[in-house]
Write a structure and sequence with these properties.
Helix content: 25-40%
Number of strands: 13
CATH superfamily of the largest domain: DD-peptidase/beta-lactamase superfamily
Radius of gyration: 20 Å
Largest sheet: 6 strands, antiparallel
Shape: globular
Order of helices and strands: EEHEEEHHHHHHHHEEEHEHHEEEEH
């Protein structure tokens, strides 16, 4: 029912996989096709050299006709039970401790469910409101914060690193001074990813060390930006795509500068609070409180077992990476964010951002000559699917992204022409099982709640 593709470019970008920063070059020039997609995230290196990152996620939807139940209350209960049964079947198949999913269509959440236990070896059941780490799916949230500040006149999409961070820009490579905010959000700044060469991998250890003391977070991000802007570029800004958490870290430092607060506080105030995303936070779920009250991520244990990772410093990338991928959230609240972008892509008024801002964020990037290039917008991969089309004709637009810090897996799919959005997450370690589990839940939700197929 699903087909996964390993490390494909597919127009979104290079999928970075494996430990030690090793880049797995994908096939180039290949079309998205009708029955598979990739949502790209990135693998980072831990301070001790272990993987800290994400994997591509795929789903395999097909077209069909929707069914609208008559009684909304009864239908909601039925939908939740359908989803619960689907999730439990998939969870058991892939041996996930916890697995969750949520579906939105035509203005409302149509199903939300989570099944399993919070951590392997403990029988505490997961709840529908429990929080999951979503890794690089954070990037669309950082881009949304940028949109808020653009509308407020605090920054422009064309604002450069030199405009916003002049002292840091002056201390770095001259090639980065004219890099714009939108180029950073498109992964077209020329800044390499952590897995691109020895130099970019080496500063990751320096960035970890920034987080080991008591340095204020905004200063950590400024210093991290200075390290990043000293890297040799992989190519001209605007013309070169390289999926880079580093680029989003620089964008985060720019947003902190114009917003006058930490990225975390800005996200809570400007994005999460207006959307009533009360479960949204940062780092591993349960950190700083009762760790048993939330799911834990997992690493591979001996002989195929799972090793639960207690919330703490080793349970996530360093907090300085936040704008690139440290959000945790319940699937119910994450669905609110996905629905926002679905409605925005449809041109609806009265949302957190104006239709023209959403259009800019969801548009294909442009090179230095103004030509459309690539399939990675601001925090979203762009593709098309038969099942996502609203009318007869060409396949419909899909916005999608996956994320993982190697201990969790998450993926979102949005089909604006069908007015539908889907999210899924689990706490398996990085690997095929975690990606497949999410894929199968997404596809099952598309079948049940969009296509009317049981």
């Amino acid at each position: 029912m699903t087909r996964r593709r390993r490390a494909l470019n597919n127009g979104i970008g290079q999928a970075v996989r494996g430990c030690g920063g090793r880049v797995m070059n994908g096939e180039k020039g290949r079309s998205w096709g009708k029955v598979s997609a990739a949502a790209v995230a990135v693998v980072m290196l831990g301070a001790d050299g272990r993987c800290m990152g994400a994997q591509e996620q795929t789903a395999d939807p097909a077209e069909g006709a929707a069914v609208a139940p008559a009684d909304a209350t009864e239908a909601a209960a039925q939908n939740n039970e359908k989803l619960r049964a689907l999730i439990e079947e998939v969870r058991a198949k892939h041996k996930a401790p916890a697995l969750a999913g949520a579906a939105w269509r035509d203005g409302e959440a149509v199903a939300v469910a989570a099944e399993g236990v919070r951590r392997d070896g403990d029988d505490t059941p997961v709840t529908d409101d429990d929080r999951f780490h979503i890794g690089s799916c954070t990037k669309a949230m950082t881009a949304t914060l940028a949109g808020v500040f653009v509308e407020r006149g605090l920054i422009r999409w064309e604002s450069t690193v030199e405009d916003v961070l002049p002292a840091i820009a002056a201390s770095g490579r001259v090639e980065y001074r004219a890099v714009t905010l939108e180029q950073l959000l498109w992964h077209r700044s020329g800044i390499p990813g952590a897995g691109h060469g020895k130099e970019s991998g080496a500063i990751w250890g320096d960035i970890w060390r920034l987080s080991s003391g008591d340095m204020e977070m905004r200063e950590q991000r400024r210093r991290a930006a200075a390290l990043i802007l000293g890297l040799a570029p992989i190519g001209p800004a605007g013309d070169t795509f390289d999926y880079s958490n580093y680029g989003y870290m620089v964008a985060g430092a720019m947003l902190e500068e114009v917003g006058g607060d930490t990225w975390e506080n800005l996200m809570q105030r400007e994005v999460f609070a207006p959307l009533d995303m009360t479960s949204a936070g940062f780092g591993p779920p349960g950190a700083g409180g009762d760790a048993r009250a939330q799911p834990w991520g997992h690493q591979p244990g001996p002989t195929g077992s799972l090793k639960p990772v207690e919330p703490g410093p080793g349970a996530d990338n360093p907090a300085v990476l936040g704008p690139a991928g440290t959000v945790h959230v319940s699937v119910n609240d994450w669905l609110k964010f996905a629905a926002l972008h679905c409605r925005g892509a449809r041109g609806e008024e009265g949302l957190l951002l104006k239709p023209e801002t959403f259009a800019r964020m969801h548009a294909r990037p442009r090179d230095a000559a103004g030509n459309e290039v690539g399939d990675y917008a601001m925090g979203w991969g762009l593709t098309a699917r038969e099942w996502a089309r609203g009318d007869e004709g060409t396949p419909g637009l899909v916005l999608t992204h996956g994320g993982s810090n190697t201990m969790w897996n998450a993926v979102a799919w949005i089909a604006p022409e069908r007015n539908a959005a889907f999210v899924a997450a689990n706490n398996l370690p990085l690997g095929d099982a975690g990606g497949r589990a999410n894929d199968e839940v997404i596809w099952g939700m598309v079948q049940r709640f969009l296509l009317g197929q049981e």
